[in-house]
Every structure is written in structure tokens, then in C-alpha cells.
Amino acid sequence: MKKRTKKYRPKPEPSLPIVFGVPQESMTSLALMPHACIAAIVDGSAVEENIYTLANVCNMATLLSERKRMTSLPVAIAGQEAIIRVIQRFDATGKIGFSGDDYQAIKAAVTLNDELQQACTRRELRDIILILQKSA
After folding, report:
1. Please, which of 29, 57, 120, 127 could form a disulfide with 34 given CB 3.0 to 4.6 Å?
2. Sorting pLDDT into bands at 50, 70 and 90, what band is 127?
3. 9: number of CA atoms within 13 Å, CB side?
4. Greatest CA separation found in the chain?
């Protein structure tokens, strides 16, 4: 058998430009999903995945606030605590619902997440998503 003489060169990972933001179509779909989940929970047609979508959004808002060193970190943490209470209530009763305070905190965290995503580049969003995937 012949010895291989070619040097191993792995395929490079495509790099995202640092200066470009996320296209508007993508931002719209990213922003609409959590709001649709909140609306589904409020009108009673929610499924379990909606809770975890909102949990992911709250986690993303917390990480973005930490990375950007924003003063809005308490809003994101309040959203995380509220979604934890919703998950605990779901585990105990099997029903998905908000209390008034939980609704306000989650809504504020989702709005914060939308604002932070608008201010981020694609690379920053990719890094946050990779961190969330590794911690899941």
C-alpha cells in the first residue's frame, strides 16, 4: 500500500463578518417567536416547548446583558426567575400559566432580549448561542 503524502488539512470553518448585523428577516423571526409563545400561554393553547423557548430567550438576555455589561441585568435575571416559577408550577400541576408578576417579568426580559439582539453582530449572537448549546 502506498504511503499517503498529502498533509491533512481540515475544512476551515466559515467565518462571519464581525461588522455586519443580522439581516432584518432573521431578526423579525427571532423576535416573533417568544412573543407568540407568550400569547399562546396567555390564551391557554401553549405546549411545553413554549416554556422552554421562553427560558432560552431569558437565558440569552442574561448572557447578552453580562457580555455587554449592561445595567439591565436585573431585568434579565428577574425573567429567568419568573420562568423557573412557571416551570415549577407546570411540573406540580401539569398546567401552563403565568401569575401577573411572572408575566410582567418575562415580557420585560423578552423585550430586553429583542433590544440586545438588535445591538449585536452576527458573531456575538453565534457565540451566545454556542454557549447556550454547550450548557444545555
Report:
1. 57
2. confident
3. 4
4. 73
List, as one string, the DSSP characters of 72-127.
THHHHHHHHHHHHHHHHHHHHHS-----HHHHHHHHHHHHHHHHHHHT--HHHHHH
Mean pLDDT of the chain: 84
Q: Among all chains, which residue has been given the C-alpha cell 448561542? A: 129
Give how far the C-alpha of residue 75 lies from the chain's centroid of Cα atoms, to the nearest Å. Answer: 15
Instruction: Round to the nearest angstrom and report the end-to-end CA distance of the chain.
Output: 45
Residue pLDDT, tens place only, 10-40: 887 766 555 555 667 776 777 788 889 999 9
